[in-house]
Amino acid sequence: MTGNGIAEALESKGHRVTRIDMGRDVAARIAEAAPDVVFNALHGVPGEDGTVQGMLDLMGIPYTHSGVATSVIAIDKQLTKQALVPHGIPMPGGHIVASEELYKRDPLPRPYVLKPVNEGSSVGVAIITEDSNVGNPIARGAEGPWQEFTELLAEPFIKGRELTTAVIDGPDGPRALGVTELIIESGFYDYEHKYTDGCTQHVCPANIPADIAALCESYAIRAHQLLGCHGASRTDYRWDDEAGEAGLFVLETNTQPGMTPLSLVPEQAKHAGIDYADLAEMIVHEALRIHGAANAGPAAPAKQTGGTDGAD
Length: 312
Description:
The protein has about 300 residues and is of the alpha+beta class. About 30% of the residues lie in helices and about 20% in strands. The protein contains nine helices and twelve strands. The strands form three sheets. Strands 6, 7, 8, 9, 10 and 11 form a six-stranded antiparallel β-sheet that branches. A four-stranded antiparallel β-sheet has the order 2-5-3-4, with no helix packed on it. A two-stranded parallel sheet has the order 1-12. A hairpin with an 8-residue loop joins strand 10 and strand 11 (about 250-255).
C-alpha cells in the first residue's frame, strides 16, 4: 500500500517509476532498473533494520530514509533507549527477558508490556494484566509473542493516551509536523488498528495542552537527530495526562513510517500544508542530497540529479 501510493504520487509529479516487490531477486531487479534513487517503502524486517540499506550501499545506489547504522539502532528498542535516554529523552524502563522464563514468573509487576526487541508495526506486542487470559504466570500453551520469539522486551505499562509526531527533513533541517492523538475503542494501537479503516480515530492536531504538544515535537526532532534519521521519521508516545509533562514517554522512533492512505505522516503533512505528492518528492530529494553530499569531494559541489526512477 505504501509502495503503490508513493509510486502513483511520484508519477503524478512527472517522475519515471519502476515498481519492485521485495523478493530474493530484489538486487538483480534493482540493478536492471538502474534507478537514480530507490524509494524504500518497506516496513519492519528486512527493509527497516539495515539489511536492505546495506545491500543498496554495496550497490552504490541512493535510497530514501535512514542509513544502515540508524536503521539497526532505531528498530532495536533496547538500543534506542541506550541512544536516547542519556540525552534526557524519557522512555519506559524494563529489560529483555527470555520467553522461556515467562512460564516461570512475571518479569515485572502486572500490568506490563511484552514486545519483540526489533519488529515494526506493533507486531507481537502483548499487554499482560491481572485479568489477561494467559494464566499467571503465562501458560506455555497461551497464545502470544512468547511462542514466536525467543526473547522479548518487558516494559511497565504506561496508562493514558497514544500520541505521535512526524518529522521531515527540509532545507532548514528537521521539522516536526504536529501531534496526532490515536483514539481506540478497545485494546491498543496494534497492527490491526494501524491498517484497518475505521478501527482508530485520528485527532490531528491532538487536543492536548500546548506544553505537551511542544514537548512531543521537541522530543521527536531530538530523537530524529540523535539517531541520525533522514527523510522522515515518526516518534510514538504514551502520555499519562494525570502526570503532566512527567507522564510523557517515548515508545519508539520509526525510521520508515507508513505512507498508506491511513498513515499518520501524510495526514500530519497535509495539516501542515504539504500534500502527499509533494511529501513523496521531498523525501526523494533529501535522499539525493544526502547521497550527493556523501560522495562529493572536500571542495566539490553536491551531485545534482535530474529525473528520478524510484524502485519501491
